[in-house]
Amino acid sequence: MKARVLFATITGNNEDVADEIIKTFQAKDVEVTKEDISNVDPFDIKPEETDILVVVPYTFDKGSLPDEALDFFEDLSDVDLSGIIFGVAGSGDTFYGKDFAVAVDKFETQLLKTGAIKGATGVHVNLSPNKSTKLQLAQFTEALIASAVK
């Protein structure tokens, strides 16, 4: 089984989120690749090479997507990812209230349009992973693996 974890980060918090997800994949013997989302063209993601796709965007300001992920996000509307299991987890700041980590929700909606299959409920992380969110991220990753095995 092969997974790709695509992340965007400024502060390093989201790379920490990605690393937690990767730890669980590795513990479950899933071959995993970690990539900066700005270096990935969604047209190059193929079901025969990727079983699980995880997107780890941060949310800043009042619900804005990461600048370095905008091209990827927009290109998803023209990509067919049928057969790929996906999940989204990312950081935000609860200070922004209703806009807290909404990039997770926006990416889930966009990925559903590609024909990809949502394999786990998105995880919203306040700033950086703490003990509780590390457990959530492990459960999220295990759910993705279980969805891909079916």
Describe the protein.
The chain has 150 residues and is of the alpha/beta class. The protein has one domain: Rossmann fold, CATH 3.40.50. Strands 1, 2, 3, 4, 5 and 6 form a six-stranded parallel β-sheet that branches. The longest helix is centred in the last third of the chain and has 19 residues. The two termini are 12 Å apart.
Helix-strand topology string: EHEEHEHEEH
Write the CATH fold name.
Rossmann fold
- What do we call the CATH homologous superfamily? Flavodoxin domain
| Residue fraction in strands | 15-25%
Tell the overall outline. globular
How would you briefly describe this protein structure?
This protein is α/β, with parallel strands linked by helices and 150 residues long. It contains 4 helices and 6 strands, in the order E-H-E-E-H-E-H-E-E-H. It has one domain: Flavodoxin domain (Rossmann fold, 3-Layer(aba) Sandwich).
Write the layout of secondary structure elements.
Elements: E1 2-7, H1 13-27, E2 31-36, E3 52-56, H2 70-75, E4 85-92, H3 102-112, E5 117-118, E6 123-126, H4 131-149
Parallel strand pairs: 1-2, 1-3, 3-4, 4-5, 4-6
Helix pairs in contact: 1-4
Function: Low-potential electron donor to a number of redox enzymes.
Organism: Weissella muntiaci
Domain Flavodoxin-like: 3-145
